[in-house]
Amino acid sequence: MAIRRFEQIEFIPISKEKAWDFFSNPVNLALLTPAKMMFQNVFKPDSEYVYPGMCVVHSVVPFAGIRITWVTRIIAVEPGLRFVDTQLKGPFALWHHIHEFKAVAGGTEMKDVLYYSMPLGFLGDLAHLLFAEKQIQNIFQYRSERLMDIFKF
Q1: CA dihedral 58, 89, 146, 26 (to 10 degrees)
Q2: Residues 101/20, Cβ–Cβ less than 8 Å
Q3: Edge-to-edge, what's the strand order for the sheet holding 66-78?
Q4: Quick one: which of 132, 142, 147 has its CA closest to 6?
Q5: pTM over cut 0.85
Q6: Contact between 31 and 41 (Cβ < 8 Å)
Q7: Tens digits of per-residue pLDDT, 75-120?
């Protein structure tokens, strides 16, 4: 099982507080997910903001029209600075996503560090090569474009 790392650093011309309020609200994930993935919240989150131990349950169609349930748990929160989610059930063998926020001149630097691995051994590695790696990149690119629309910058 190959463990892969994806990192993206993005500048958003809004305050760190505004960025934190938006990203730490799990309902907003739907606004940042490509429509073709048909994102749905399975349960309404029990809090407006992430907290350690919080479970977020949603369903997505990652490929080939197959709908899956994706359950993540928030395992760490440093309010205003970072939070970490990890997959309990979903399309990956491993999913560990760190979200960090840092105030910089003119706005906020948002850093995502994702550690992940594909299921199914060799077949998962082949799926990664054929489409999964590109799909992860496209999801983060879509998020960048949506943020411009949402925050009008």
Answers
A1: 60
A2: yes
A3: 4-12, 107-117, 94-104, 82-89, 66-78, 55-63, 40-41
A4: 132
A5: yes
A6: no
A7: 999 999 999 999 999 999 999 999 999 999 999 999 999 999 999 8
